[in-house]
Amino acid sequence: MPSAASTPSVRPTDQRIWIIVPTYNERDNVDPICDAILDTVPQANILIVDDCSPDGTGELADELARQRPNISVMHRQAKQGLGRAYVAAFRDLLGREADVIIQMDADFSHPVRFLPSLIEPLTADRADLVLGSRYVRGGHIPRWNILRRLVSRGGSVFAGIVLFMPYRDLTGGFKAWRAAALREIDLDRLHAGGYAFQIETTFRARLAGARIEEVPITFEERRAGESKMSMAIFSEALGLVLGLRVRTLHRRKRTLTAGERPF
What we know:
Blueprint: E1 3-4, E2 17-23, H1 27-40, E3 45-50, H2 57-67, E4 71-75, H3 82-95, E5 100-103, H4 115-123, E6 129-133, H5 146-163, E7 175-178, H6 179-183, H7 196-207, E8 212-216, H8 231-257
Parallel strand pairs: 2-3, 2-5, 3-4, 6-8
Antiparallel strand pairs: 1-4, 5-7, 6-7
């Protein structure tokens, strides 16, 4: 079972905003990304979730946690996918009674300067889930070639059409949640292990009635290390979207037959 590392206790007044940073072989990035996050949102706390990185990321994260009371570390026994890491982190932070929970990558592809833009719709009570979007007006991907753009944008368009979701960026991983919205999602029902997790959680939040807003971001190339993207991840996303659609139609048919609300 995953377990959190022993770290200095966090003062209750600091528990409002938590930022999850999942890591696997991110030793060169974990220290500077934590510095950048806390420089931008000094009132935030960081939960580093390390999947037993062989490059020593977890040990470095423990050292950072010993130095700063607003950094905690969760160590997982093996690499099990991004989705599993986030589910473990969600459970931990909901148990800590966090108010705002943010997902972001450790490699600087999600620039920390956009964190206030993601947080503001939640604190202003306009949204329950905020998507950092590359594809709304003002969003940019400055260094991608045409093939990567087509694959990424095509995946979002496909998921939106099949799952009847009007959002332009469904595959991005820069997201901010109101904790109450996460509590409405049955975390035990989340199946995706890779980037398809982003589609699945937004879909389930929408079914639960969450108010969802997109804000523009610029997606940058990682500063160090290697990308975790693969064809297997794309295949998982395709299968997940079709599976969600089939299960949703089946559920709608069953509940309508029983005279209940379809969702």
